């Protein structure tokens, strides 16, 4: 099993990289990208079976970033894993770059274009169903936002995943309780979200979305119940890792000033304890 300290350091570096990308690209969904960094790091360095040298390997695990606006950490991880030269990320959000502000499948490692919320789960259901039909053992993971739960298409997909007994499908909700313009409870109340998923026939597991041990244990061992898709409700903090961005709705989409960048990078580098190379 992958070392927890390794994951923690890796996630901290990914946070520093994604902030730099947003600062240099002068645009980005900062809060949501920081919110899901630990989930993505755990998936890509500790759980999923993917091979950057063999993009079309039929048995690779699939990942769909349904909350596509939080693309920055995802690109940084794919670059770090060697899906493309990291240098290319310097073109983020520039005219003509394939590294646009939402995932697109011109980027090696990205399975599907996303960004219009509410579609990642439907695509994932198709991929999981295809695995069952073809007798393949790969798993399918998708990450949704909690604001995204207001999309009706999420629930059509949820219903069909249970109907087809897609236990090779794991959906994660980044439960940071904020969406674009304020709290999820104010914009579209969700509680009890766990009960909703359970009533749709899913196995529901709650985790602390910043606790690598819990994430590894749960994401590494789905399905818990044969014949049921799994919903991992990951409780997170939007803007996690940068004190002045945490739980502040306006950082949903925001570019730090030079001074704010320096503060953010110094907070994060303090967590590395002097280890900046690995
Ligand atoms: C179909 C659709 N409607 C609206 C938007 C605009 N939008 C972008 S992000 C966002 C809020 C998403 O909130 P949440 O899912 O909670 O994401 P997170 O908090 O993780 O950033 C909205 C409404 C969109 N991308 N797609
Ligand atoms: Mg949210």
TrEMBL record:
Its cofactor is thiamine diphosphate. Gene3D superfamilies: 3.40.50.970. InterPro entries: THDP-binding, Transketolase_N. Residues 11-259 form the Transketolase N-terminal domain. It comes from the Bacteria. Keywords: Thiamine pyrophosphate. SUPFAM superfamilies: Thiamin diphosphate-binding fold (THDP-binding). Pfam families: Transketolase_N. The keyword Acyltransferase does not apply. Belongs to the transketolase family. PANTHER family: TRANSKETOLASE N-TERMINAL SECTION-RELATED. This is Transketolase domain-containing protein. It comes from Ruminiclostridium papyrosolvens DSM 2782.
